[in-house]
Amino acid sequence: MTQLEYAKIGKLTPLMRKIAKVEGVLPKQLLNYIKTGKVVILQNNSHNLKKPCAVGLSLRTKVNSNIGTSTDKCSIKDELKKLAVSIKYGADAVMDLSVGGSLKAIRKEILRHCTIPLGTVPIYEIAVNAQVSKGTFLKFTPTDMLSVLEEQAKQGVDFFTIHAGVTKNNLALFKKNKRVLDIVSRGGAIIANWMSYHEAENPFYEYFDEIIDIAYKYDVVLSLGDGMRPGSILDATDKVQIAELQTLGELAKMARSRNVQVIIEGPGHVPLNQIKENIVLEKKLCDQAPFYVLGPLVTDIASGYDHISASIGGALAASFGADFLCYVTPAEHLRHPSIEDVKEGVIASRIAAHAADLVKNRKSAIKWDREMSLARKARDWKKQIKLSIDPDKAKEYRRSSQPKNSDVCTMCGNYCSIKLMTECLPAGRQGRPTGGSNLRA
User: Fold this and answer.
1) What mean pLDDT comes out for the span 145-153?
2) Cis peptide before 391, with omega less than 30 degrees from 0?
3) Residue 421 pLDDT more than 60?
């Protein structure tokens, strides 16, 4: 049975209880949210995870890191280092997006070292297999597709990105709705080309019942991918994007009716003033399913700094109700990410997620900020470093510029405002709340 199936009959599983304790929510509340599809647990029933992860309503905003080989860069050693960095710096899940080398062997190694949920985009392996065996990625069959899905699920993959919304009807909308950029999703583009070559419907859509069967067998969460997401802020929230989202909502109902957990993937490139609209639309059209967003990036011109653009959009999106942030690295749009790029992407997304959790009034987030503020007031540098989202960087910055007076920093030195006010204010007034804030534990 799947976790959704257990929830529907009112049975609290040990996994649900563990998640509830970690998240600080009532077990019965968590069970109800799983039952209604508002929360999913990312754990294949054959994957023994040290850190299981749940995504959705009332829970901490989660962060995903992407790793994987490319056709130009193919080192499993480097990808394992990226995995280790992702875990070290707090990613809640990771996706293997490999398209170069022996994909099955790479995935096996990643799974062996992965202590957090692992996701994949199966169309990548399907296309690569066809390219190797048949000379073109366009010659895979529905049988090939289902075979790869079964094999990956059997290996222990916890969630699949399934681009089932790239349908004939939705693709036809491109003729009437011109975009600056057409399809920027790698999976979406592969499927669109396959459909054009075969003059056939998307096999992920046509064989969705069979995909549900595989997901049910292993309790794999289906992450319904936005294969037609906007790749330019000028295309955001257009009719093409909304039509695909409506299709994903219908598919989500099908999956949940058969006890398979679902999350919905979202854009993409979205200007600040349209982010709230996108969250509201997804929650409405997809019956409150957890929303997994790529960024969103709030401008198209931040090459080399897209992790910052994405963290701005991610913080806003999550504050409006997005549940899961897919990181973006500084290498986005430019190159295969390095190990350092992965670290920067994870940290930026975690800052965004934490900022949103403050808005969501998550007690653990508020407590963390309160402890840091008190450590700063006490000028307790060791504690400040320990509480930092990246203690390594904080420690190095502190070490690299030593003040003459050890209880201040070299920015203000003798004119440290915190120290001056500690000496100025009566002891009874120190630490008293000033009012006007909702961020209270």
Assistant:
1) 98
2) no
3) yes
73 within domain boundaries: yes
Give the list of residues 6+ apart from residue 196 with CB closer than 8 angstroms, or none: none
In this prediction, residues 68-94 reach a mean pLDDT of 97
Residue 427: the pLDDT is: 66
Q: Which residue segment(s) compose the domain that 412 sits in?
A: 363-429
Q: Is the pLDDT of residue 73 over 50?
A: yes
Residue 115 sits in a domain whose CATH number is 3.20.20.540
124 found inside a domain:
yes
Tell me, what's the pLDDT at 406? 87
pLDDT for the residue numbered 431: 54
Mean of the pLDDT values across residues 235-245? 97
Q: How many domains does the structure of the chain reveal?
A: 2
Report the mean per-residue pLDDT for the chain: 95
CA quadruple 128, 130, 135, 141: dihedral, nearest 10: -150
Q: Euclidean distance between the first and final Cα of the chain, in Å?
A: 38
Q: Going by C-beta distance under 8 Å and a sequence separation of 6 or more, which residues neighbour residue 329? A: 306, 307, 337, 341, 342, 344, 345
Beta strands in 36-120 (DSSP E): 39-42, 53-56, 62-67, 93-96, 118-120
What is the C-alpha to C-alpha distance for residues 291 and 288, in angstroms, rounded to an integer? Answer: 8
Would 184 be classed as within a structural domain?
yes
- pLDDT for the residue 429: 58
Question: How many CB atoms are located within 10 Å of the residue 349 CB?
Answer: 31
Do residues 138 and 178 lie in contact, with contact meaning Cβ atoms separated by under 8 Å?
no
Instruction: Work out whether the CA dihedral 147, 150, 101, 161 comes out positive or negative.
Output: positive
Q: What is the pLDDT of residue 407?
A: 87
Please classify residue 372 by burial: count the beta carbons closer than 10 Å to its beta carbon, then call 0-12 exposed, 13-18 middle and 19+ buried: middle
Among the three residues 358, 384, 414, which one is the final residue of a domain in this structure? 358
Q: In angstroms, rounded to a whole number, what is the distance separating the alpha carbons of residues 378 and 162?
A: 51
Helices (H), 135-207: 142-155, 168-176, 186-198, 203-206
pLDDT higher than threshold 80 for residue 441: no
**Per the structure block, which two tokens stand in for 355?**
């900022």
Asked if 290 contacts 40 with a C-beta cutoff of 8 angstroms, the reply is yes
CA distance 69 to 102: 10
Q: How confident is the model at residue 428 (pLDDT cuts 50, 70, 90)?
A: low
Tell me the C-alpha distance between 65 and 376, whole Å.
31
Q: Are residues 251 and 373 in the same domain?
A: no
Residue at 327 is within a domain: yes
In this structure, are 270 and 419 located in the same domain? no
Task: Say whether pLDDT at 430 is over 60.
Answer: no
